[in-house]
From TrEMBL:
The lineage of its organism: Bacteria, Bacillati, Actinomycetota, Actinomycetes, Streptosporangiales. Coiled coil: none annotated. One of its GO terms (biological process) is proton transmembrane transport. Gene3D superfamilies: 1.20.1530.20. Keywords: Antiport, Cell membrane, Ion transport, Membrane, Transmembrane, Transmembrane helix, Transport. It is a multi-pass membrane protein. This is NhaP-type Na+/H+ or K+/H+ antiporter. It comes from Nonomuraea dietziae. Pfam families: Na_H_Exchanger. The keyword Ribosomal protein does not apply. One of its GO terms (molecular function) is antiporter activity. GO terms for cellular component: plasma membrane.
Length: 410
């Protein structure tokens, strides 16, 4: 534990020192933690020794996903969803399930997994990660509708994929209808906790008896999140669905609470994400990557290059997006943090195909991080006016106009 903490602290300091460079180049802090975990894990140097059944793995995955879903939910209050639903609705209502289905077909026919395990992999790999689209979203020359689409989609799809992951995992574990009923109760209880706790807390603060000071304002949403986490643990409600619903509830009813917590919350979520990537990398080894065979690597390519682009193309037929915009949305469907944690949850679940599912998920995420983190700057520059119209093009056009005028004068 102490070694893991030391390694994480050192990598975090290095990431901070390199963060400005990473914003201008293809360098990615996410890739840094993943690669460092791989090199320092048992598969290479053996500095960080972890096993899938270690308590730290499950605990970190749980806390990290809770924090990320809570902050994701805060990005998309009901008002945001209602005013900006047209294009994100296509990506989430059609693109997400189509990506799930195409990915599942690849897992079944290319690798030979059973249908339930294939659907589980599809649900795990369906969400996208906004980290690798940061250069695109941050480029003011990118059309606002495209930036809004990527923001809303990446903020919502982690939570939307969660029930499918839980359902397919329960069925793959051999659950009977009674257990599925318990799963439904768990999900429903998570929704109730996630909506009720923040709503009551926000209403209490608006009474004449309570008021948060400026210094404690950022802790308001943190206290709500911790209370949701504790109640979910105590009642066995689904923590992740509770976190996502709590974030949406705060964003909907407590705009001030959301604004005061936004920067603080993003930092907390980022810490957990980087720690989970380090642990995920430490669980990957060369034998694991090699054991998937050429079919597993082919599946990873299909999941990244075919599943998402095909789903987006179908989803955005007649949407008004031009070819360049559709291509950008289709390519930026990277498999990131949510897929990492879902993969860790499956690995610790004990289902018969847990190791095989984790291997395929791990290979796909590794390829995705390497490909998407090295192409975000390139794709973002598609929308740069100077890149779109090179300088020589303007000079050549002026020369042609001058020649045309001279010929007309003669």
């Amino acid at each position: 534990m102490s070694v893991l903490l030391l390694v994480f602290a050192g990598l975090l300091l290095l990431a901070v020192l390199l963060s400005s460079l990473a914003n201008r180049t293809i360098l990615s802090t996410a890739a840094l933690f993943l690669v460092a975990g791989f090199l320092l894990g048992d598969g290479a140097l053996g500095v960080v020794s972890l096993a899938p059944n270690d308590e730290i793995v499950a605990t970190l995955a749980e806390l990290a996903l809770f924090a990320v879903l809570f902050t994701d939910g805060m990005r998309v209050g009901w008002k945001d969803l209602r005013t900006a639903w047209r294009l994100p609705g296509r990506a989430l209502g059609w693109g997400l399930p189509l990506t799930l289905v195409v990915t599942a077909l690849g897992a079944h026919y290319l690798v030979g997994l059973g249908w339930m395990e294939s659907l589980l992999i599809g649900a795990i790999l369906a969400p996208t990660d906004p980290v690798f689209a940061a250069a695109l979203v941050g480029n003011e020359k990118v059309p606002p509708r495209l930036r809004q689409l990527l923001n809303v989609e990446s903020g919502v799809n982690d939570g939307l994929a969660l029930p499918f992951v839980m359902l397919f995992l329960a069925v793959a574990a051999g659950s009977e209808s009674l257990h599925l009923g318990e799963l439904g109760l768990e999900l429903g209880l998570g929704i109730v906790i996630g909506v009720a706790v923040p709503w009551v807390a926000i209403k209490l603060e608006r009474t004449r008896w309570f008021s948060a000071s400026t210094a404690y304002e950022p802790l308001n949403a943190l206290a709500i999140g911790l209370l949701v986490l504790a109640l979910g643990k105590a009642t066995h409600g689904n923590l992740f669905l509770a976190a996502f619903c709590a974030g949406i509830t705060v964003a909907t009813f407590g705009e001030r609470q959301r604004e005061s917590f936004e920067h603080f919350g993003e930092l907390i979520a980022e810490l957990f994400k980087l720690a989970a990537l380090l642990v995920f990398g430490a669980l990957i080894s060369l034998p694991l990557l090699g054991s998937v065979g050429w079919r597993g690597w082919l599946f990873a390519i299909v999941a990244l290059v075919l599943a998402r682009p095909l789903a987006i193309w179908i989803s955005f037929l007649g949407s008004g997006l031009n070819v360049r915009e559709q291509a950008a949305v289709a390519w930026f469907g990277p498999k990131g943090f949510a897929s990492v944690v879902y993969g860790l949850i499956v690995l610790a679940s004990g289902i018969a195909a847990a190791q095989e599912v984790f291997q395929l998920v791990a290979v796909t995420i590794v390829v995705s991080i390497l490909l998407h983190s090295s192409t975000d700057i390139v794709v973002a520059r598609w929308f740069d006016d100077e890149q779109e119209v090179p300088a020589w093009y303007g000079v050549a056009r002026r020369l042609r106009e001058r020649v045309r005028k001279e010929r007309g004068a003669s």
